[in-house]
UniProtKB/TrEMBL annotation:
UniProt GO cellular component terms: cytoplasm
GO MF terms held by the record: ATP binding; magnesium ion binding; phenylalanine-tRNA ligase activity; tRNA binding
Organism: Halapricum desulfuricans
Annotated binding of Mg(2+), by residue: E423
Gene name for this UniProt entry: pheS
Protein name: Phenylalanine--tRNA ligase alpha subunit
Length: 501
């Protein structure tokens, strides 16, 4: 039997009675592990070798774990300081912390683990150390020492779990491949195996010399393992944004752009939102510690102030609540991209606009929301509006029906709601394809006269703010937006998510 040189070396080094790892064969034969692995799989296909795969878990100390191994666990340092200072009585926490030399986050770590391990009690700002506690028998210290010396397999699993939760160790897994000769491999060795001259490509030299007739060409094993290479690709959310943009441009819309940080005047005041509205506090929006915006456009500013104080039209009431230019000029991160709509409708962004007009934006907005499966502190809003005569809710619903049909969503639900800047107003809902849950996907309505007249608009404007992330969840079936976007993003999902268009 003739085999390529590397395969012959692997067969001769393998054993029928002993399982040998690819790493050990690579060291012995002075070959790269990848070439030994490739040869092993090729020999397995020939029936000469068995390739055995197993998982090897390794445990190592983090930088924090190594620091605690050298300096002592924070709770033990705190206990020893308390024991020395207590003299049988409770001692002030501040005194013990100072004596322990702990600083910053290590203090909280020490306090939370002191009672858990039975080293003492904390009550009313005083620490009572247990004189019978034995830090020398601390299982976590013993475990850190064992891991550092390479004896992690001697550490109990629950102790490893606790150390991992504390961020003191890192666990990693790798696939270990080993080989063993089969009966066919033993027979082949006994009968004799020769090295065959093998080439992996047909060259011009082989053709011109005629040597191609006497060589053996290597076969490609398309099933052999290869290293994973994660090339660059568009983020699924960015791809969804581009798809939305194509759909809206196809529906005749133009794109708006504007500042992420803007004056409250454009973010809230122009939207007829009173300055004492709870949504304008730091609990809902992010204020920036920067100088306020300069002078606001006089005509628009005066009309917006008038709408807030007295209302619009003969029956207008306004809010009869405080309104001040100082607050209107404060800079915030926009909580919605309707601030762009206000800039465009007022003529500040593009000059005076004559109906009919259609505009949209797909931009980030920022809100101090509680983070959960459908909320992040920043999100993409699909802002849009249509300026025309005699618009109605039917026009608005028809626009949504046409838009969402482009994404295969045909089960829209509408619910009346209240917005300070639209009347009538309604929310949009769609059914999640995996969970079956009905998810809010947007808000919309017809802009009120109290918003339009101060901006100089004398015809109807229907508008909406739709959630790009929610749309992506309905299209892809993603159940938690934190897996797709943000600090907890699932990288495997981003690498493997299929292209949708």
């Amino acid at each position: 039997m003739k085999l390529p040189e590397t395969q012959v070396a692997v067969v001769e080094a393998a054993s029928a009675t002993e399982v040998r790892t690819v790493e050990s064969l690579a060291d012995e034969l002075d070959h790269k592990p990848a070439s030994i692995t490739r040869a092993a799989f090729e020999l397995e296909d020939e029936g000469l070798l068995d390739v055995i795969e197993s998982t090897d878990e390794s445990v190592s100390l983090t930088d924090e774990g190594r620091t605690y191994l050298e300096d002592g666990l924070p709770e033990i340092r705190l206990y020893e300081a308390a024991l020395e200072a207590a003299d049988g009585d409770p001692v002030e926490m501040g005194e013990v912390i100072g004596a322990s030399g702990l600083e910053g986050g290590a203090v909280d770590i020490a306090l939370s683990n002191l009672a858990r391990k039975g080293y003492g009690e904390i009550d009313s700002g005083e620490i009572s150390p247990d004189p019978d506690a034995d830090p020398d028998a601390d299982e976590e210290v013993t475990a850190l020492e064992a891991i550092e010396s390479g004896d992690a397999d001697l550490v109990a699993e629950d102790t490893l779990d606790q150390l991992e939760r504390r961020g003191l160790i890192e666990r990693s897994e790798r696939t270990v491949r080993s080989v063993q000769l089969t009966d066919e491999g033993v027979t082949a060795l006994m009968e004799g195996i020769e090295v065959a001259e093998a080439v992996d490509r047909l060259t011009s030299e082989l053709l011109t010399s005629g040597e191609w007739r006497d060589v053996e060409f290597s076969e490609y094993n398309v099933a052999a393992d290869a290293p994973d290479i994660d090339g660059g690709k568009h983020h699924p959310l960015r791809s969804m944004a581009e798809r939305v943009k194509d759909v809206l441009v196809g529906m005749g819309f133009e794109e708006m752009q504007g500042p992420h940080a803007d004056a409250e005047f454009w973010i809230n005041d122009c939207l007829f939102m009173p300055q004492d509205h709870p949504a304008r506090t730091h609990w809902d929006q992010f204020a920036l510690d920067v100088p306020p915006m300069g002078a606001l456009p006089d005509g628009v500013r005066e009309r917006v102030e008038g709408a807030h104080r007295e209302g619009v039209g003969e029956d207008g009431q306004g809010y009869h609540s405080p309104w001040g230019e100082e607050m209107a000029r404060q800079i915030d991160l926009r909580g919605h991209t309707t601030s762009l709509s206000a800039r465009y409708l007022s003529g500040i962004a593009e000059g005076d606009l004559e109906p009919p007009q259609r505009y949209f934006s797909i931009e980030k907005a920022y809100r101090n929301d509680e983070i959960d499966a459908t909320h992040l502190l920043e999100f993409f809003q699909i802002e849009g509006w249509v300026m025309a005569e005699d618009l109605s809710v039917r026009d608005l619903m028809g626009t949504f029906t046409e838009f969402y049909e482009q994404f295969g969503i045909t089960d829209l639900q509408f619910k009346p709601t209240y917005n300070p800047y639209t009347e009538p107003s309604f929310e949009l809902f769609g059914e999640h394809p995996v969970t079956g849950e009905v998810v809010e996907i947007g808000n919309s309505g017809i802009f009120r006269p109290e918003m339009l007249e101060p901006l100089g608009v004398d015809c109807d404007v229907m508008a909406w703010g739709l959630a790009l992330e929610r749309l992506m969840m309905l299209v892809t079936g993603a159940e938690d937006i934190r897996d797709v976007h943000g600090t907890l993003v699932d990288l495997d999902y981003l690498r493997t998510e299929e292209v949708r268009y």
